[in-house]
Amino acid sequence: MKRSDIGTFIKGIMPSIVDLIADSIAPLYKRIAAIEEEELQADYDGERRLTLRFTRGPNVKVVYLKLPIPIDKGLYRPGERYERGDTVSLGGSLWICQVDSSSQQPGTGPDFRLAVKKGKDGRDYGRPGA
């Protein structure tokens, strides 16, 4: 091959090299585009429920999580429904709901567990200035 033939050879082979490189990196471009389409969205209800929404193109996967977080619901209210982990106070004691749904009064059955028992009054209870 002469020196003058090298230029002609390169011009002839160059389109094949360009096509080979383009074919080799095309899957990478496709994967990058797919990754850029993926999305994660998280919604928290402020108490115990967390909703995770995974999106990849037209596909959506939703996962609902119920977190085991104790939540203070204040004073026990008859007729109110309580969830597992809800804490209520009744008679000076703190109770934790042990079941998924209960309207039972704490201390009358297994739905609530005593967490903190009411303490005794101090010696100076009722004294003036105490």
Q: Could you explain the architecture of this structure?
A:
Helix content is 27%, strand content 32%. It is an alpha+beta fold and 130 residues long. The chain folds into 3 domains: 1-37, no CATH class; 38-69, no CATH class; 71-116, Seminal Fluid Protein  PDC-109 (Domain B), CATH 2.10.10. The chain has a 4-stranded mixed beta sheet, with no helix packed on it. A 3-stranded antiparallel beta sheet has the order 1-2-3. The longest helix is centred in the N-terminal third of the chain and has 35 residues, at 3-37. The N and C termini lie far apart (111 Å). Residues 118-130 have a biased composition (Basic and acidic residues). Residues 101-130 are annotated as: Disordered.
How many strands in all?
7
> What is the total domain count?
3
Strand content: 25-35%
In CATH, the topology of the largest domain is named Seminal Fluid Protein  PDC-109 (Domain B)
Determine and state the CATH class of the largest domain: Mainly Beta
Helix and strand pattern = HEEEEEEE
> In what order do the strands lie side by side in the largest sheet?
4-5-6-7
Radius of gyration: 34 Å
Largest sheet: 4 strands, mixed
Total of DSSP H or I helical runs spanning 4+ residues: 1
Mean of residue pLDDT? 88
Topology (SSEs and partners):
Blueprint lengths: L2 H35 L1 E6 L4 E8 L2 E8 L4 E5 L10 E5 L2 E5 L14 E5 L14
Parallel strand pairs: 4-5
Antiparallel strand pairs: 1-2, 2-3, 5-6, 6-7
